[in-house]
Amino acid sequence: MALERLSTEDALLYESLLEGDHSALARVITKIENRTPGYRQLLSALYDQTGNAAVVGITGSPGAGKSTLVDKLTRQYRHNDQTVGIIAVDPSSPYSGGSVLGDRIRMSSSAGDMDVFVRSMSARGRLGGLSMATADAVKALDAFGKDRIIVETVGAGQNEVDIVETAETVVVVVQPGSGDDVQLLKAGILEIGDIFVVNKADMDETAGTVADLEAMIHMDETSSVGAIGGHHGPERTTQNTEPEADDSHAPGDGWTPPVIQTVGTTGVGVDTLRGALEAHRRHLSESDEGMRRRRRRAQTEIQRLLRNDLGTLAETVLEQRGGLESLVASVEHRETDPYAVVERLVEPVETAVNETLETDE
């Protein structure tokens, strides 16, 4: 049914993407990012092909070395013949809405490797660091057949929690000496981390930062089991060596987020991070948590799409009623009030919805 709704051009694009054409993948993501007419139908058709990739979110404060870490992690995946898709979410330009940083510059080791697809995308003003287009681009990469998808977020601080709605595993990266940052992040992204990484671990302040993280997370866990992310168990571990095969997470058990020390510039500890990512994916597949997260992501996506479409409908109603400026002028001159204006705008929409519901009954 979804395929029948595609235009001839989009149907060809769909087939080319599934056949492994990287240029088709790039065009699809551009179509998604620009919200070109037909992109929704294309995503709907691709949806059946998704759900196979491991999606990892890398988040944390600016300057923590996230891009360098992603570069080294990608290199390890490629050494194991796994294909990788990377989305680097950059801050938005306040004028054009486009991305500013272009993190691809710091991921140079994969240049020329056709099995590594890197795309910088704009956060488009989202405080959480991600836009709807980013989540949709992840679906395109998944349908394309990438084994691993890494989303590196903009690093906007404690507000950056949107990554949970897209990634199955969230890695929070901090740098040594960032004790104040850790305190500030306590109420934000620390609560959504599945794995914590202290990068630049060759610095003198590393031990102190690890201790701060451990103490803070231990305090949260003892005060409320599973307080972090709502699903972690009561014990924690610190890892700076390659983990052994992990059989400790039986179905139904909580996940114990490790704190891992890495040096992104040299690759030290990146193998440990990769092992922790594999262990967490096993945990999700062997416990009910994986199903709960998928359900939560589906719920969030439906709500977000609904809000977006209702917002678009509201804009249409505004234009039909003379535009926002004329309504603002009437309120400014005390000819009416904001509550009456909105009630008048919503009334025909509400009437249409009620009539549809009555018909369905």
How would you characterize this protein structure?
- With 361 residues, the chain is α/β, with parallel strands linked by helices.
- It folds into two domains: 49-299, Rossmann fold (3-Layer(aba) Sandwich), CATH 3.40.50; 315-360, no CATH class.
- It has eleven helices and eight strands.
- The chain has helices at residues 8-18, 22-33, 39-46, 66-79, 132-144, 179-185, 206-223, 270-286, 289-320, 324-332, 338-360, and strands at 54-60, 84-90, 116-122, 148-152, 169-174, 195-198, 237-239, 258-261.
- It has an eight-stranded parallel sheet, sandwiched between helices.
- Helix 1 crosses helix 2, helix 2 (22-33) packs antiparallel against helix 5 and helix 4 (66-79) crosses helix 8 (270-286).
- The longest helix has 32 residues, at 289-320.
- It starts with 7 loop residues before the first helix and ends with a helix.
What is the gist of this entry?
The chain is of the alpha/beta class.
CATH top level class name of the largest domain: Alpha Beta
* Shape verdict: globular
Under CATH, the topology of the largest domain can be stated as: Rossmann fold
What are the segments in which pLDDT stays under 50 over at least 5 consecutive residues? 93-103, 224-238, 241-252
